[in-house]
Each structure stands twice: as C-alpha cells, then as structure tokens.
Amino acid sequence: MAGPFTREDFENLVPADKKLDPAWVKSLLERGSRTVYRWPESRLIGLPIGGLCAGQLYLGGDGRLWHWDIFNQHIGTGAEHYAKPMEPRSPLEQGFALRVVAGGLAQVRALDHTGWRDVTFNGEYPLGFVEYRDPDAPVSVSLEAFSPFIPLNVLDSSLPATVMRFTVKNTSAQPVEVELAGWLENAVCLHSGQSRDVLRRNRLVRRAGLLALECSAEPMPEDQVSPKRPDILFDDFERSTYDSWTAEGTAFGTGPIEMDKMPDYQGKVGGQGRRVVNSHATAPGHDVAAKDAATGTLTSRPFTIERNYITFLIGGGAHQGRTCVNLLVDGQVVLSATGRNDNRMAPHTWDVRRWAGRTAQIQVVDRETGSWGNIGLDHIVFTDQPRRDLGPLAEESDFGTMTLALWKASPEDLAAVALPDPRVPAGIFSQNAADRSPTATRPFGQKLLGALTRKWSLAPGASGEAVFFITWHFPNLRMDRLPPGRHYATRFASALAVAEHLAQRYPELRELTHRWHDTWYDSTLPYWFLDRTFLNTSILATSTCHRFANGRFWGWEGVGCCHGTCGHVWQYAQAVARLFPELKRDTRERVDFGLALQKDGAIHFRAEFNDIPAVDGQAGTILRALREHQMSTDDSWLKRNWPAIRRATEWLIAKDGDGDGLIEGNQHNTLDTDWFGPVAWLSGMYLAALRAAEEMARVVGDDAFARRCREIFERGQRKLVAELFDGEYFINKPDPRHLDAINSGTGCHIDQVLGQSWAWQVGLGRVLPEKETVSALRSLWRYNFTPDVGPYRQRYKPGRWYAMPGEGGLLMCTFPRKDWDYAQAKGKGPEWAAGYFNECMNGFEYQVAGHMIAEGLVQEGLAVTRMVHDRYHAARRNPWNEVECGDHYARSMASYGVFLAACGYEYDGPRGRLGFAPRLTPEHFKCAFTTAEGWGSFSQQIGQGVLRARVELRYGRLRLSTLALRLPAGISGHTVTATVAGEATAVRVERTGGRLEVQFAPACQLEAGQALEVRVAGKAGA
Ligand SMILES: [Ca+2]
Ligand SMILES: [Ca+2]
Ligand SMILES: [Ca+2]
Questions:
Q1: How many CB atoms neighbour CB 588 within 10 A?
Q2: How many angstroms is it from 611 CA to the middle of ligand 3?
Q3: Which regions of 548-612 does DSSP assign to beta strands (E)?
Q4: How far is the CA of 363 from the centre of ligand 2 (A)?
Q5: What does 661-708 look like in DSSP terms, one character per residue?
Q6: Distance from the alpha carbon of residue 914 to the mean position of ligand 1, in angstroms
C-alpha cells in the first residue's frame, strides 16, 4: 500500500482547512434546546432504561420497551452495530395501549408508533420522555420512563426495574372515558423452556397499594410430561465429504474439516468426534480476512420432523440471517440460529413441535464477508429430550420472576391474570379481560399474557396518571472464571419484592432522579453537549457492566466482547469514578491492586483473563488510584492501598530501565500489540503516573519515594521533549531491532499527549510543557480531524467502521510526514491491529476533545465531540449505543471527561478542595458537579469588576476547605467575601497566577439545600 508522498497528497485525504459550515460552528457553543426526535426518525433509538448492572432493557423511540437482555444469556457484539444498527426487536410481548370512549365512539390506540400520528422522543439520561398526539384522538398521552438514578447512591440506582409513568389528558371539549392497559408476557425460562418441560404461572397480588402481575415458572408436573422416543442422530459429520448435503459457494470447501487441521487462532471449537462444519477453516485464503470473505451455503437432504426437538452445536459469527443455521419448512426459513461471535460451539435447541410430520431441511449459511463472517456446526440430533444435563429448573440462567405492577392501585383498577385473546392490544379491552382469577398456568409454548388496566372519566382539560413498574429478578448469572450471581438478588428475593420496594420509595426515588437530571441540565452548556457527554453513563445500565453477588463490579469492553474490565480500555472512562466512586475504589482495591497484581508490581489488565500487563493500562491505573483517592473523604483508602500502588509504580520504573524517564522495551498497549522504542504516548503516560505516584506518596508520608518519582519525572519530561518533539508534534523512535513490530513512528497519533490529558483530570498540572502540548493538539486537529473520512478510508482500507464515508471524526493515526507511512507503521504484525490507525474510535476522540478544551482549543474540542454526536444522530443509528469493538463500549465513558474539562473541574476530597475554571462563557456559567459525598450546582457571573461564584449543594453533604476559581482579567481578587448558608464567613485568600484560592478555616460544611457564595472584587493592578 503506497503512502501519501507529498503534503498535497495528504491534504487531499485530510484537509488542513476543514471548511466547516459556519452555522454548524456557531451551534457548537449555543445553548440550543432539548433534543427531540420525531418518529420515524427515532426508529433506532434504544435508551438503556433499567438499573445499573441489572441487564439491558431499551426504551424505544416510540416508547416501546425492547431488547430485554435480562435473562443472563451471553450476547456477543463486535463492531457490526455501527454500520448496521440493531433493529428494535423483543423476545416477548409487552406494551401499553389506550381505549378512549368519547361521544359514544370508542378508539383503541397502542402506545407506540402504530397508534398515533405524531410520536416524539426526548432522551435525557436517565430519563426518557415520549409524547403521543393525534388530531383524531380526544386525548394526548405523555410517557416519562426511567429507572432510579442518583449519583453517589449505587444501591438506589441499581434496581432491576423500570418505571413507566403515563399521563393522559383530555384535549377535547367533551368528557371521555379512558382505559389505559399494560400487558406483559410471562417470559420466564425464555430459552431453557425450549429444551425442557416448563409450566409458567401468573399470579395477581394486591398489597400495600400495589397491584402486581407476577410471572414465574416451575417444572411441569410428572403426569403431564409426555413419554420420550429414542434419539435420531441426523449427522455427526464424521467423514471427509458432505455426502447428502449440497454445498454452494466456496466457504464450505468439499467436506467437514478435521478439528486438528483448523487454524490455531480459532482455538478449540468444541465439536464432537474429529470433524465439524466450519466455513472459516474450509474457506480459501491464507489469512483471517480472506477466509471470512468467502461465502456459501450447505443444505441438507429433506427429512421428516418426527421428534419434538432438533439439537446441534453452533459457533461462529452472530450476524442474523448471514452467519446462521436455518430450518426450512416448505422452502421457507421458519427458525434460524446464529453463532455468538465465538468460535467455540455451544449447544442449541429448536423446538419443532409445531411442524411435526412436515418435511424440512437444514441450511447452513455464510453470506457475511466481514469480521466474524463464518459459521460452525456439528452433531445434529432429533430428540424428545434435548438435554441430558438437566439440573434443577431453579438453577437455569433464565429462571426467575418478572412483574408488571400498578402503583397506588385502587379497587377500580382491573387485572387479567391471563388474557383469553393473546392478540394485543385488541384482546385486552374485551369484557373477558376482567376475569378476576388470581392465578393461571400454561405449558411453555402457549403464550401467557397478563394485563393491568386503569380507568378514568376525564372532564375536558383534565388529566389522569398511571405509574407502572416493570421489574425482573434473574439471579443465576454465571460467567466463566467469575464469581456467580447478581448483586441485586442479594437484596431482593423476587421481582415482586423489587416492585414492593419501589412502591414504598417511589416518590423519593423519582424526585431524586429528577433532581439529578434537573441539576445536570440546569446549565449554561449547550444541550447537545450535555446530552452527549452524559449519555454514555448509561453504559452502566447495559450488559457491558455487571455486579456479582459478592459485590464486585466487572465490565466487558463492549457488550459480551473482551473480558476483564480491561485496564487499558476502562482507564479512559471518567464517568463512573465521578458518579459512583465506591464502585471504582472497590475495583481498584479488589482487582487491580488485588487479584490482578503480581509480585513484581505488574497488573494483569484483564485480571483472571490474561497474564500480561500493558504499559498504558498500568500507568492509567496509577492515575486512577489518585482519582479514586481524590473522590474519597479521607486518606484511609489510599493508605490501605499504597503498598500495592507503589509496587505497581515500581514495575513501570523498572520498564524504564536506565531511569531516564522514557520506556524503551516491549510496551503492550491498548492497540493490542507490543511497541518498541520510546513512544511519546506511552512514556508520557509513564510521566503522568510518576507525578500521580509522587502526590500519593506525599499524602502517605513516603517522601523518599515521592522524591524518586519526581526526579525521574523531571528527567523524563526534558528528555521526552528533546527526543520526541519534532517541532510540530510528538513522535516515537521505533527500536531498529524491532522494525517488524507495529509502531506509529512519526505518524500523528491520537494519544500522543494522553498523559497531559490525564493530568488535567486529576489536577496534576503540567506533565508536558504547554507550548509543545498545544502544538501537538493543533497538529491532531490539522492532520487527524476530517469532516469526511471517506477519502482517507478509500486510500487506507484496513480497519473497522466507526465513521462511514460522509461522516467526520478524528482519525487514530495519520502519516503527514514523508519518513514514515502506514506500510512501515503496520510492521509485520497482524493487519487487524494496524487497521486501528485508520479508524475513528470515540473514547480516544473524547480524550483529545477534553484535552483540547482544557488547553484553550475550545472550538476544536467541541467540534471533535460534536462530530461524534452527529455520527450518532438518531436518523443514522442509536444515539445511546456508541460502538467500538462491541456495543455500549466502555471507553466512550471518556465523554464525561470532556464535560469536566469544559468546567475546569478539580476536586480533592480528603483536602476539601473544589475548583472550577469554566472554558465556555465564564462570564455566565453554570454546571453540575459531584464530590465524594454530595452533588450540586456551581455557577459564576462576571460583570462590573465583580466575580460572583455560588456552590449550591443539592444532595448529600460537602466539606470544603478551599474553593479555587480562575481570576478573570481586570479583577485582582483583593476583596473577597463569602457566605455559607447565608452567614458571612471569614476567608483567607491566596492568589497564584490566574488562580484564586478561597480558604475556609475551619472547613465549611454544606448540607443539601445550602449554598456557599463568594464575591470576588478588586481592580487588577490595584
Ligand atoms: Ca463431529
Ligand atoms: Ca464468510
Ligand atoms: Ca529509559
């Protein structure tokens, strides 16, 4: 692949003049208005709407709930949902509908896009708002959906529950009769019920103002289980040809492959016997991409369905309809199963009772040419007893309970334990629905739907409210090598218990959730910016994040993809530590400085799942230790963890070798390979970690170690600039002994000054000098930011798609100089890893954007952030699912760091220090903030020679010794007065450079509802 050889060539790919639309640039800074999407533009929306670490339930753009990943099934995702966003889909029937009678005429309208002409959606995490309007309807409906979310309060934010609050308003001139119904299908044992005999049970419960439909399951009574016929082995593929199967295309080769002859990188596929079907191993080509690019189908002879189930082993790609095994009846696909983006095959069962006696075929499909473009299959059996390993039903991963509940129920509210007509919403409002039986059962396979209904008579202009809870309880989470069980199940015995808890605390939890939401949006910052920088916090409410029964927090990189709360990925994610610091302190202590820490100080960055450290992950974890300490109330956490933190720092110092402050040996990193020679990015992270270690050493009184870190840092800082700053940006000097290794060399790499970006997040000041750092950021803007990645990707094809042609972004690494290009940078390493250079990955972009804003490149930083926001406009894809290598990718929580940079936020809890230096509109600024024990709102106004600042606490408490502010030009800060909760309070003042420190001795204490106000005046020069 030829690189660009002239600057002009390069600028055809990444223009120096971005030619940004002036209206777009103007909109970056404007407050704007709430983001409202209108159906069908909102079609792909999936706002995570459950509690933290409680599964993944989406609120759709029309208010329907979808996805329902609450049953503890492993769902693997990769890069695919960027280019092809998930289509809304539900494995169970659930919804809400309205019946209105006005003037003797009745209408039934589902509360989704099918029932109304105008459906609008506004998502402001953790809240979702949907409005239903129709000129032909005598009512309008408003939905507010949320799961309780209160920063600093993990337990109240982690309920396996969703609140759906409907308000119906009579917009007509005559009285109307309204019924609003919610229904829920009993989906307990959703998967396991397909391969064992299950009886589902619905039960109605009225207690303490709650009307609840409880869904559960139990083993089918023995006398109702039909006898088993002997198994039929349809095919085990233990031969070298396909025989009666018909192969088309090239992917399947000429016959089943011997597992011993499959490429090593596929790992053990777990087939039975010696041979399996595998459209990767049998495909032509000599590398991963070429083999995945092949396609084909493999179709069986026709056979008669004469058992209840078909079982088989399946592995490979998770592409619906493109890497799959299909059951054809009369030539039509009636069932389809995909792999899980995992070569290791897993048992799969089809319940084929519906087609007993019919003629069928099995078809194996590989139509996918990209990543995970393959399918594996073995051991097809027709059986009446699909599984031999049946343990107790109660131990199945999808065993548990669900409820639909109506809050503040009255005797007039109706309930149907089982709808006689499962067609919804038509079947709900019939007379029969009012059947008051308290329980109903159905064998698995027959739909069991219950419904709850509220009725009102509404006068013109009047409103009625119905608050539904949907709760779930599936305790049997089991993941390889990890502690079992879900944490929520240690607090609640059932979904009904969750609903009862929620019923008791609903007004308080709703008020606190709104209080946070209102605090966040009560800001001078632009709406789009507030949306984008906060919404990734919702990743905590997806299957990226888990909390086990023993209390341990654990994260994938993205949903189901790449294990182990990966240190070098998660270190970018600034949100969790600032919003739920106890989760992060625990993860550091229990995992990084606990089970993942080795004798020599190395931290295995996937804990149980790998056995090597990464330089960036290691440095980032030391920096995170400082942050976790700063989000504490005292020094106890740091003191307890210091020996481990110091050991981890010493591992990095050992990597430096000669102590010159640069690391030269093998450096594994987040781009998944080892780089060699001094790398500006990685040594810069090392220097930032040394500074963090120095600060922490001083707190615990380890002055000798603090001095040692300081000395190396100072040498390293000088040397990094002298050796690796090329006059324009920071480069690497690849080790000539390792030119076969990947290395961005003199390329302009997105993370080159990450160490300084990190330093701003934790108040470390300058790690890299200002002039060179700003120059590096300007170079990233010039050489890596493009309003259209199309031309660049046309030239540099490898890499995944996180920005499509026509979309803009900040490229990972470009090669504007003539002495290094992509071909050299990729070394002899795997192309998939080198392909990263050509991608746009949100987490990295946010890191740079925050850094740009911190260094005063405000417009550039906003533009980078906004470009991600635009890529995730609802018209293109789900705004709440930032995809990298997996859905809801953890690194995207770096967006919270951009917000912090815009506020110039700094905080040190044990020292009682809080500071702000707004980068946008400092003359009139307002933002939310969090501290160790409380959160609230900061505002400042500048005018007529006076700076007025206000810290208003809205939740918890805050101990404050120092409030740090940035002195505006023209104000000296010689006259400072303060009030705490309205009382005048004496302060001391220190001024250094443009910083003003307002000190309180003794420290002041704010409780929720109290404010601290500071007035700063004095003419500069006076
Ligand atoms: Ca076999
Ligand atoms: Ca393929
Ligand atoms: Ca060195």
A1: 22
A2: 24
A3: 553-555
A4: 15
A5: S---S-EE-TTSSEE-S-BHHHHHHHHHHHHHHHHHHHHHT-HHHHHH
A6: 64
As a whole number of angstroms, the distance between CA 314 and CA 703 comes to: 59
pLDDT in the model for residue 2: 45
Which residues have C-beta within 8 Å of that of residue 85, sequence separation ≥ 6? 44, 876, 877, 878, 881
- Pull the structure tokens for residue 431: 């007379």
Q: Which ligand is nearest to the CA of 664?
A: 3
| Rounded distance from Cα 59 to ligand 2 centre (Å) | 33
Quote the ligand 1 centre to 363 CA distance (angstroms): 17
Q: How far is the CA of 874 from the centre of ligand 2 (A)?
A: 30
Q: Omega of the bond prior to 126 within 30 degrees of 0, cis?
A: yes
User: For residue 323, which ligand has an atom nearest its CA?
Assistant: 2
pTM above 0.70, yes or no: yes
Centre of ligand 1 to C-alpha 790, Å, is 45
Calculate how far, in angstroms, residue 975's C-alpha sits from the geometric centre of ligand 2. Answer: 72
pLDDT at 435: 55
What pLDDT sits at residue 422? 73
Under a CB-based contact definition with an 8 Å cutoff, are residues 745 and 676 in contact? no
CA atoms within 13 A on the CB side of 1002: 3
How many A from CA of 87 to the centre of ligand 1? 34
Ligand nearest to the CA of 233: 1
From ligand 2's centre to the CA of 316, what distance in Å? Answer: 10
d(CA 887, CA 559): 5
Tell me the ligand closest to 720's alpha carbon: 3
Tell me the DSSP string of 202-253.
Answer: EEEEEETTEEEEEEEEEEPPGGGSPPPPPPEEEE---SSS-TTSEEEESTT-
Residues lining ligand 1 (ion), CB within 5 A?
A: 236-237, 271-273, 378
Q: Which ligand is nearest to the CA of 324?
A: 2
DSSP readout, 752-793? TTHHHHHHHHTT---SS-HHHHHHHHHHIIIIIEES--HHHH
Q: Which ligand is nearest to the CA of 654?
A: 3
Q: For residue 276, how far is its CA from the centre of ligand 3 (angstroms)?
A: 50
Kindly identify the ligand whose nearest atom is closest to the C-alpha of 733. Answer: 3
* pLDDT for res 1: 40
| DSSP output for 845-904 | HHHHHHHHHHTT-HHHHHHHHHHHHHHT-TTTS-TT---BSBSS-GGGGGHHHHHHHHHT
Residue 523: what pLDDT? Answer: 98
CA 534 to CA 532: how far, in whole Å? 6
Strands 161-170 and 439-443: unpaired
pLDDT of residue 6: 74
Residues 6+ apart with CB under 8 A from 743: 675, 676, 677, 679, 732, 734, 825, 827
Q: How far is the CA of 322 from the centre of ligand 1 (A)?
A: 23
Residue 810 pairs in a beta bridge with 785
Task: Give the DSSP H/E element, type plus range, for residue 87.
Answer: none
pLDDT means per 10 residues in the chain (1022 residues)? 66 94 97 98 98 98 98 93 96 96 94 98 98 98 98 98 98 97 97 91 92 97 87 96 96 96 93 97 92 96 95 95 96 95 93 93 96 96 85 96 97 90 77 69 93 96 98 97 97 98 97 98 98 98 98 97 96 98 98 98 97 97 98 98 98 97 96 96 98 98 98 98 98 96 97 98 98 98 98 95 97 95 92 94 98 98 98 97 97 98 98 98 98 98 96 98 95 93 96 93 96 92 55
CA of 846 to the centre of ligand 3 (A): 30
Q: Give the per-residue pLDDT at 430.
A: 65
Ligand number nearest to the C-alpha of 282 = 2
Q: How far is the CA of 368 from the centre of ligand 2 (A)?
A: 5
CA of 285 to the centre of ligand 1 (A): 24
Query: For position 5, what pLDDT does the model report?
Result: 56
Q: How far apart are CA 905 and CA 700, in angstroms?
A: 24
